[in-house]
Amino acid sequence: MKTAPIDAPTYNLSGKVALVTGASSGFGEHFARVLAAAGARVVVCARREDRLETLVDAIAASGGEALAVAMDVTDAGSVAAGFEAAEQNFGPVTVLINNAGVAVPKQAHKTSEQDWDFVMDTNLKGAWLVAAEAARRMVAADSGGAIVNIASVLGLATSMGHGVYATSKAGVIQLTKHMALELAGKNIRVNAICPGYFKTEMNDEYFASEAGKQYIASTPGKRLGEMQEMNGPLLLLASDAGSFINGIALPVDGGHLVTSI
Ligand SMILES: NC(=O)c1ccc[n+]([C@@H]2O[C@H](COP(=O)([O-])OP(=O)(O)OC[C@H]3O[C@@H](n4cnc5c(N)ncnc54)[C@H](OP(=O)(O)O)[C@@H]3O)[C@@H](O)[C@H]2O)c1
Q1: How many angstroms does the Cα of residue 150 sit away from the middle of ligand 1?
Q2: CA 256 / ligand 1 centre spacing (Å)
Q3: CA distances from 71 to 77, 133, 251, 252 (A)
Q4: Which member of 4, 15, 24, 42 lies 3.0 to 4.6 Å from 46 by CB, making a disulfide possible if both were Cys?
Q5: Helix-strand-coil split of the chain, %, nearest 5
Q6: Cα dist. 245→34, 142, 213, 250 in Å?
Q7: Whole-number average pLDDT of the chain
Q8: Which residues of 217-228 are buried (b: 16+ CB within 10 A; e: fewer)?
C-alpha cells in the first residue's frame, strides 16, 4: 500500500525578521542566537545597548545577521520607535519573542505599590504594548506572524513569595489567549512559553545559595533547566512547524508543575 510522503517539520526561519525583547541577557540573549541560527534576521532589543552590540557581533561572527535597537518596553513611544527602526532596516517583523521581564520576590502583603507598578508595568503592560505594536504592524502588512510571549510556570501555579510576579505572568497567559482569539483570522498565532527555573541574572544569586540548592533538590527533576532545552519549544512556536498551534501556554519545566500535593 502506498502512503502519502510525510514531510519532516521545518523549523527554518530564513527570510523572516524576528524581534526579541529583553535580549541583553538570559533567555532573550539565547533566543536571539537560536533564531539567528535558524536563519532569521534578528532585531535585539533592551535598554543596555552595549550588551546588545556585543550580541550583534557574536551573531555576525557565527554567520547570522542582527540589529541592536534600544527599547524600554514600559514606554509606548520607545516600543513604536523600536519597531520602526526594525522595519526600516530589516523589513516588517513577523516573529516576536516578547521576553523582557523583571521580578520582585515578596509576599503579596509585603509588596509595596512601587514594587507592584514596577513588575506590572514591565511584565504585563510592557508585554501588551509590545505584542499590540507587533500585531498592528503584522495586520497592516497582511504578513501573518508568530508572537511568542515568555510567561512562567508561576502564571499557571504559584509559590510562596511571588505574589506580584505570578499575578503578572497569569495576566500574560490570558493576554496570549485573548490575542490568539482576535488575531487567528489574520494568520497571526499568539502562544506563550511557561519556563520552569533556569539560571539567569534574574535568579543566579538565589540558586547559588543554600536555600536555592535545597529548592532545586525538591523539584521532580532535581535540577534547573539548561538553556538549550528551550530551543525546541521556541522554534516550534516561532516557525511554521507550529502553524496550527495557537493560544497555548506551554510549560517547559521538567515536570515541575505536576508536583504532587
Ligand atoms: N530565569 C527563569 O528561571 C525564568 C523562569 C520563568 C520565566 N522567566 C521569564 O523569562 C524572561 C527573561 O528573564 P531572564 O530569566 O532571562 O532574566 P534576565 O537575565 O534578568 O533578563 C531580563 C531581560 O529583560 C530586560 N528588561 C527588563 N526590563 C526592561 C524594560 N523596561 N525594557 C526593556 N527590557 C527590559 C532586561 O534588559 P535591560 O535591563 O538591558 O533592559 C533583560 O534583557 C522574563 O520575562 C522572565 O520573567 C524566567
Answers
A1: 9
A2: 21
A3: 9, 13, 27, 27
A4: 24
A5: 50, 15, 35
A6: 20, 19, 36, 11
A7: 97
A8: eebeeeebbebe
Rounded Cα distance between 78 and 134, Å, is 13
Neighbouring residues of 146: CB distance < 8 A, sequence distance ≥ 6: 94, 95, 96, 188, 189, 191, 237, 238, 239, 242
Spell out the domains of the chain, with CATH numbers in brackets.
Answer: 17-251 (3.40.50.720)
Cell for 119?
513588575
Please report, for residues 16, 66, 198, the alpha-carbon distance to residue 185 in angstroms, rounded to integers and kept in the order given: 20, 30, 35
Q: Fill in the amino acid letter for 236.
A: L
Could you give phi then psi for residue 69, rounded to 5 degrees? Answer: -135, 125
pLDDT digits (tens, 9 = 90+) for 123-140: 999 999 999 999 999 999
pLDDT in tens, 53-95: 999 999 999 999 999 999 999 999 999 999 999 999 999 999 9
Is the CB of 54 within 6 Å of ligand 1?
no
CA–CA separation, 199 and 201 (whole Å)? 7
What confidence tens digit (pLDDT) does each residue in 214-227 have?
Answer: 999 999 999 999 99
- Regarding pTM above 0.85, the answer is yes
Is 81 buried (19+), middle (13-18) or exposed (0-12) by CB count in 10 A? middle
Tell me, using a 6 A CB cutoff, whether residue 254 lines ligand 1.
no
